[in-house]
Amino acid sequence: YGMAGPTYEVLLQAGWTPASDIEVEVVPGSTALSACASLVGAPLTHDFCSISLSDLLTPWPQIARRLEAAAKGDFVIALYNPKSGRRTGQIVEAQRILLQHRSPDTPVAIVKSAYRQKQKIQHVRLDQMSDCDIGMLSTVLIGNKSSYYRAGLMITPRGYENKYENLVGDTHAGEQRGKSLSMGLTGWQECVRVYLKEHKSTSLMEVATYFDVPLDRVFCAINGGSPEALPMPYAATPVDLVYAQRLLDGANGSDNLEVAVSNNSALCCSVHLKRSDIDIDPARIKMVTEQLQLSLDLKSVDQIWLVCSDENWTELYFLNKCGNSLLAILLGG
Prior knowledge:
Elements: H1 4-13, H2 32-40, E1 41-42, E2 48-52, H3 60-72, E3 76-80, H4 90-99, E4 107-112, E5 120-125, E6 138-142, E7 148-150, E8 153-155, H5 188-198, H6 204-211, H7 215-223, E9 234-239, H8 241-250, E10 257-263, E11 266-273, E12 278-280, E13 284-288, E14 293-297, E15 303-309, E16 314-319, E17 325-332
Parallel strand pairs: 1-8, 2-3
Antiparallel strand pairs: 3-6, 4-5, 4-6, 7-8, 9-15, 10-11, 10-17, 12-13, 13-14, 15-16, 16-17
Helix pairs in contact: 3-4, 5-7
């Protein structure tokens, strides 16, 4: 029941140390998620995590944030303490959160009393999960976007198909045995640059969505090309607020600045303003007209990027700590 942690906590609070006369031994065992996984196939062959749905000691908003992060990160998820006689709503809420990021037909295995006399296994879809027979003796295994059922087995691919033909055949074009994928840490930015060259009409926001990365990662990819590489349709450079204001001051005569305001990288509105409608002070950027009042707190701005296109337009992007756009100002083009 995970009591090693409380045991150490109580002893340490009482002044105990490992050198004391009281000896503590922690004996490793087979976890519920690995035992349950062995009964349903091989669902844990890629990255996974376990999350307890018990809110007896953990605030629910914290549990919800963990579910959200695991779902967005495409982890295989094991749910502990999914439901009890009094806690019946947590599994329903967990299902709602997961369905925001996973397909309704995502495979789910529910194992009750694993390796015990009353063992029971249910194979269902994610959208059926909360309607199943689930209790405190159950562990719920939820697949990632690649997991599937076949011949009664729940399988999560390891990823060999990303590199090899038919898992064990020759490598795909552009891949090498024993080397990181072309979309690996050192190669994925080149994939972004190639994509930009081949899809010149695609917006940078759409490129970020395609690769499922924050906008600043796209800017870093543009900025990170070698000098001998083929010409890019964009150039991207990080700048500070002083330089950004200088650029805006250089657009003083413009009566048609396009301003795009975003919230969590989702475009909320796009308006055309005069330079005189925009004011920058040490605390915020204010955009005021007779019909519109917008204000951006500069405390929320972590990065500013200047992006230039080979089609002769220049844009300033103000990004938050997550690398997503808060405000974009088209200076010319």
